[in-house]
Amino acid sequence: MIQVVAVITAKPGQRARLLEAFAANRAAVLAEDGCIEYGATVDAQGIPPSKASFGPDTFVVIEKWASLPALMAHGAAPHMAAFSAQTKEFTESKRIHILEPI
């Protein structure tokens, strides 16, 4: 199994817009062969901000894939290219961490 932590930062004030596009694309990703989990998360409410907080413009996508080939196919999927093109103007940065269990 492959796990991914994708830290996505929107341009200031654009996180809701980016999350809306993410939500619209999510069903297509969940339908991909080998997708086990794919969901967006944000800093928990009620927790005081710290150096580790992501802040109001960032969300984190938690992903689990059955295999590295499944993840690679995800990256090449047409709906992911469309998502990237649609969100490019209001995305500040993406940091993708690809991990495997030990």
From TrEMBL:
Gene Ontology MF: a single term: monooxygenase activity
Oxidoreductase keyword on record: yes
Keyword line: Monooxygenase, Oxidoreductase
Hydrolase keyword on record: no
Domain ABM: 2-99
Gene Ontology cellular component terms for the protein in this record: cytosol
Gene3D superfamilies: 3.30.70.100
SUPFAM superfamilies found in the cross-reference section: Dimeric alpha+beta barrel (SSF54909)
Name of the protein: Antibiotic biosynthesis monooxygenase
Organism classification: Bacteria, Pseudomonadati, Pseudomonadota, Betaproteobacteria, Burkholderiales
